[in-house]
Specification:
Sortase, Chain: A, eight-stranded mixed barrel, mainly beta, 2 helices, single chain
Length: 223
């Protein structure tokens, strides 16, 4: 799948073509439920031959806390990965895929604004670029996330919702299950999905061969 315009602007690098095809499935999945990046000079960690981490045995995770009131996100931080970035709301484009942050904003994370707000019950969706033509982008190191890692979402009311990573998976294009990725893992729990490109970049299709999906759930909150 190509970029939303049908051809990628020059110099955009490995952006979100891999994310785009996965999120196209999101649009189709939501519709079915009746719910109202060219290659750079180096390989990012999310584009190598990565085995799905899943949830290793023996990793003790904290209990989930009750969901919060629905408030839009403003900033995301993953301290263990050195990720700290602003969050902007995005909608669906003309193809039914989430419209990612503009190509000029590779260090900004997109949030599916018509979906769940991070901290509220249900899975909230965040997407980001993996790299550009010349340098890493916001989710370059996302595949290095491990169960137990903390993800902090600062919300527009000043509150901070803290999530704990419980699962890291790489979904090949031919085995991408939209209901598994975007659906709730535990009913009525506040969850988070962080998504970027994975696998390898296929020049013929102008797209990545997989997506990295990090799943987390709400475990703490600060007013």
């Amino acid at each position: 799948m190509t970029a939303p315009s049908g051809s990628r602007p020059a110099g955009t690098g490995r952006l979100v073509t891999g994310v785009a095809w996965a999120l196209l499935l999101l649009g189709l999945w939501l519709w079915g439920r009746e719910v109202a990046d060219g290659p750079g000079g180096s390989s990012a960690p999310t584009t190598g031959d990565i085995a799905a981490v899943g949830r290793p045995l023996g990793v003790a995770l904290p209990p989930a806390r009750d969901p919060l009131a629905p408030v839009a996100p403003r900033r995301v931080e993953i301290p263990s990965l050195g990720i700290a970035a602003p969050v902007v709301a995005r909608g669906l484009d003309s193809t039914g895929a989430i419209d990612p942050p503009p190509y000029e904003m590779p260090h900004t994370v997109g949030w599916f604004g018509s979906g769940t707000r991070p901290g509220a019950a249900g899975p909230a969706l965040l997407v980001g670029h993996v790299d550009t033509e010349t340098r890493p982008a916001v989710f370059y190191g996302l595949s290095a996330a491990r169960p137990g890692a903390k993800v902090r979402i600062t919300r527009t009311d000043g509150s901070v919702a803290e999530f704990t990573v419980d699962d890291v998976q790489v979904y090949p294009r031919e085995h991408f299950d939209a209901s598994e990725v975007y659906g709730a893992r535990v009913p009525h729990r506040a969850e988070l999905r962080l998504i970027t490109c994975g696998g390898t970049f296929d020049r013929n299709s102008n797209a990545y061969t997989a997506n990295v999906v990090v799943s987390a759930y709400l475990t703490a909150a600060t007013p």
